[in-house]
Write a structure and sequence with these properties.
single chain, 193 residues, mainly alpha, two-stranded parallel ribbon, 8 helices, 2 strands, 2% strand
């Protein structure tokens, strides 16, 4: 096992992988750019919603909107992401930059992110969210669980080659996203941000 960048954060290796792993390069590059900051991750670990939004916020760039940083009257988009939550700044940044547009009462940052949710964030990050939400524009895309209504999102991700799916597999909106898939997709999407 090879541990690049050991000691950068919390004196732990950031990635634990074999040198032959295909996703290693994307993960290393996201670490170098400060987008991937979770210590001790493995490519096959699942990504939580909080970590996915954190990566997207860091990829887009953090804006400091003092409206949501006001400690006396902080903005709180989700009832379970208070100002003391470690993901608060990333979530509110994602909302401000229209990366995170699903307005629910709870965010559930510790739940694993599904591929359908991930590609919505990814397409919004690249600035194509509004057009992706108009499925009548796109030819039907080949993916399972089409009940998610992701035709536009899947089509855009397929066209830009950023769909978080292993080679030879069909996109499944209900599958849980791994760090390897997230890193590969996000790294490829950086050129469109």
């Amino acid at each position: 096992t090879y541990y690049p960048y050991a000691g950068i954060f919390d004196n732990e290796a950031l990635i634990d992988y074999n040198e032959q792993d295909n996703y290693t390069r994307s993960m290393e590059l996201l670490i170098c750019q400060g987008i991937l900051r979770t210590a001790g991750i493995k490519p096959d670990n699942f990504v939580t919603k909080g970590e996915a939004v954190k990566m997207m916020s860091l990829a887009k760039g953090m804006i400091f909107n003092y409206e949501f940083l006001d400690y006396n009257n902080p903005r709180q988009t989700f009832e379970d992401v208070s100002i003391d939550d470690p993901y608060y700044l990333f979530v509110e940044n994602a909302v401000s930059q229209k990366i995170l547009q699903d307005k629910k009462s709870k965010f559930s940052s510790e739940e694993y992110i599904r591929a359908g949710e991930f590609i919505k964030l990814l397409v919004n990050l690249m600035g194509y969210g509004e057009i992706a939400s108009r499925p009548e524009i796109f030819a039907p895309a080949a993916y399972s669980n089409s009940s998610w209504g992701l035709n536009g999102y899947v089509s855009i991700c397929q066209a830009l080659k950023v769909l978080p799916v292993n080679e030879g597999e069909v996109f499944d909106a209900n599958s849980v996203v791994t760090y390897a898939q997230a890193a590969e997709s996000l790294y490829k999407a950086l050129e469109y941000i």
